[in-house]
Amino acid sequence: MVQREDLLTPDNDVVAPPREGARAPLMWSQEMYWYAYHLPLPVVDSAKIQLTVPLPDPGLAEDVVLDAVRRLMTRHEALRTLYPTDPTGTPYQLVVDRFDDPVPLRRRGNEPEDVEAVFHDLFLSPMDQATELPVRVGCTLNGERVATLVLLLNHISADAASLPLLRADLKRYLGLPDGQPPTAPEPAGATATQPATVARQQRSGTRDSAQLKALRYCRGVLESAPGVQFPRFRTVSVVDPANGIESHYRRVSLQSSQLFAAFRRMREGTDFSVPAQISAAFTMAVAALSGNPRTVVKMNLSNRFREVRDSVGCFFQEALVSVDPLPGATVHELMAATKKRIFVGARHAQYSYLAFRDLKAEVESERGRTVRLGTILNCSDQFATRLANPNVPEGTPEIRPRLLKNLECLWRDEYTDLCLKSFAADGEVVLDLVAHRSVIEQDEIERMLVGMERFLIALSEEPHLADATVAEVVERFGFPVASYGEEWVHVDHSWVDTAKLARVIRSVAGVGAASVGLVERPSGEPALVARLVADPSIRAEVEAHVLAVAREELDVMCPHAYVWCDALPDADASPPAEEGEPAGTGTPAEAGSGSDRPGAEARDRAFAAAVSLALRGAPVDLDSCYVRQGGTAVMAPAVVRRLDRLGYTGPTPDDLLGPWPLRVVAGLCVPGRDKTAG
């Protein structure tokens, strides 16, 4: 058998930085950020987080500040770790022993806009995981002294729970009045458990049983999740004229002192925490906006296990939480279910992300459609502390009016539908929503946030509101509500446009007519059935075509069954495509997949050669999907890199992991540059 080492090494597909240091596998939690780095969002880049430390007047000398940053990097291994891949395409951590001090980005002036400008300059250029240390340094200057220190961190090396630890260390090293007195330099790694140690423990076998339970839980969520929460999601391209950056998202922040006061009133005598209440309100809003009674959210919980509570690194993992805000359920029932589901999701949030990504691809193959998990909820775990803060007096005499602000949004990906971040600060509760432009309009964002705020305030004033139904809350508080036409059906927990699906099927050569509708299975559940006038021998072509279209048209899916007919009643025949409406024949995959097009055979050969990396040199069947042939998530980026070396661009790792035949992915390939390898 040909080994992957033999396939990869001759073409130098491995990024091997000329560094020395300790090697370790990736932690499960780091795997998500390694995989996401290889997706074009729209450029290949790392997720980044910011740490800002204002310095007391008149500031500090730059050499003192940079020395503190070096001490910080020496103390915490995560801040001097690279993430290259080995000859098999597998990523690993490389904790470097010696490193150069980061070169600071400087800006004169210390107004808020100066600090923001430093952050922007640090943020906008891509950060290479394999070759660039995960810390960038910037500062604003007051004369020749540093007034504000800005650190930009690669998220694969630090999570939000790391920031207070880093801030405390920096203040100590800088000798600031509110920090502890500086101490002698610590030896490298003189903190709590390091990421490399955790990674080795995870690979030791001691956590296999817990991981299997977690993955079984994830399978259950994936099998019953909506294919897409918002079937009208579409890729958009909006360029912000102010900075020339593609802006796919809107960001609106609601700041409410009334809501802060309401939560204070409810913190005693209620069975539900503030995060549970906000989560229930958000799932109601999402269910109303999407029209889907099942809501699956990814929750950014601070689910750090005990050994790493005082460690710097990216240890948290997203918890999958599935909630059913059914119209007839009461508020109390929904909150009780939400509280339980959050607990269960957090308990099953420790697993290999790459194993989860393989599992997701397997479930998608079984269901015949992708599962888009694009709804994110991040509730601060500091609500209880903030609400009990004696520095914010009870019963604030003057309740400030609600404040809705349109904020700049630097998100550039297409992998999120809605993301709500909620926290308390300075006597206000903040609901900060990042929303994809194809999912929700500007006025709907404001109606959603205001509706959530009004509902939660009313809940504190009207205890009987807990007996109201979800439908009553949606109507009373004005949540935006989705509507679908008669041609839409709800099946497999998802909305499907049957008229469009019928037109897609009819566009396949050899299909004379087609219609799509629901029938009841013996189990009582509905099934999506296509009736078509065609020879049954073309079923594979029909399925491949539907899957190809479903890459972009999220309101279609593969039927559960086909019925082959000699003719269809006129009433059932699907109408012709309207002008300007996609019929399924012009998608990128289909447009380039014909074998009679010039260069198609060479393209297919190159694509098969690249995919063979993931299959250990085994023959590649372009009429079967990647996962069914043994392809894995960890190898998908290596396949894309190899394809690039063969002179083709276009496919992403996510395209490989989809449920469609590989011939569809091959159709995405376009010549990128001159071939450098045969």
UniProtKB/TrEMBL annotation:
Tell me the ranges covered by the Condensation domain, including all copies: 58-469
Residues covered by region (Disordered): 177-208, 573-601
Q: Which GO terms describe its biological process?
A: lipid biosynthetic process
Q: What protein am I looking at?
A: Condensation domain-containing protein
Family annotation (InterPro entries)? CAT-like_dom_sf (IPR023213), Condensation_dom (IPR001242)
Composition bias (Low complexity) maps to 186-197, 573-594
Q: Where is the composition biased (Polar residues)?
A: 199-208
The upper taxonomy is: Bacteria, Bacillati, Actinomycetota, Actinomycetes, Kitasatosporales
